[in-house]
Amino acid sequence: MTPVIAANSLDLTFQTNDGPVHALKDVNLEINKGDFVSFIGPSGCGKTTFLRCIAGLETPTAGDLSVNGMTADEARRARAYGYVFQAAGLYPWRTIGGNIRLPLEIMGFDKTDQAERVKRVLDLVDLNGFEKKFPWQLSGGMQQRASIARALAFDADILLMDEPFGALDEIVRDHLNEQLLQLWARTEKTIGFVTHSIPEAVYLSTKIVVMSPRPGRITDVIESPLPKERPLDIRDSPEFIEIAHRVRDGLRAGHTE
Question: Residue 251 in contact with residue 210, Cβ under 8 Å?
Fold first, then answer.
């Protein structure tokens, strides 16, 4: 199987006024079609930087990176992915439907196709009936669902998500985690997901990538044995707890190296 995303000996050093900052070091990773991969590590470990490299928003200084068989920049121009940021980033003067339509308008989809796609993705994220509402009329969790809908609107194969639920309370976060798993099962997207939460990473993922403090390196890649169908109470199971311990041990090991 040809990986959808492949990084080989990837390095990234930022040049700053205070000298070089080594953000990523010798990152090697393969992500296959349909994987749900979470990246977890301490703040500043390069999780988001690596996601931005995949998205073609940062340029590695060494190594190779391919996305859908192309360079990351080619994949960005081919619109191979949707990107969901930490903040929903919805334009307050546009309705929810208008926000979702924005990338479709930019890409030149005709109005009939735009309307059909907006309806379909609102269905996917359970926001039926909210197309004409404005962002300020929605809760934080609903705004993030609208942001996910916008990223799904042009039907890219890959969904990149940078801590999309980090600012939400635990109850809302649990609910959105369940909804995201259902969405992933229905769409079969390949998902890259950045998080600080061990339970979130273990609950969502088929593969968990544990990263060390800067310079960001991969200290462990954990293939999850959990079934695709995951009720929230799976978090009390011995298998779940065992994976969470391994993630925690990997994070500790990264700090002591």
Answer: yes
Rounded mean pLDDT of 96-106?
Answer: 93
In 35-179 the beta strands, taken as DSSP E runs, fall at 36-40, 62-67, 70-71, 81-84, 158-162
156 vs 36: CA distance, rounded Å: 15
How many other β-carbons are positioned within 10 Å of the β-carbon of residue 80? 22
Q: Give pLDDT tens digits for 27-63.
A: 999 999 999 999 999 888 889 999 999 999 999 999 9
Amino acid 21: pLDDT: 83
Burial of residue 252, with CB atoms counted within 10 A of its CB: 0-12 exposed, 13-18 middle, 19 or more buried: exposed
The answer to whether 217 and 27 have CB atoms below 8 angstroms apart is: yes
| Helix H or strand E segment including 28 | strand 19-31
Nearest to 160 by CA among 61, 56, 257, 90: 56
How many C-beta atoms lie closer than 10 Å to residue 223's C-beta?
10
Local structure of residue 135 (DSSP, 8 states): G
For residues 25 and 216, the answer to whether their CB atoms sit within 8 Å is: yes
pLDDT band at 214 (very low <50, low <70, confident <90, very high): confident
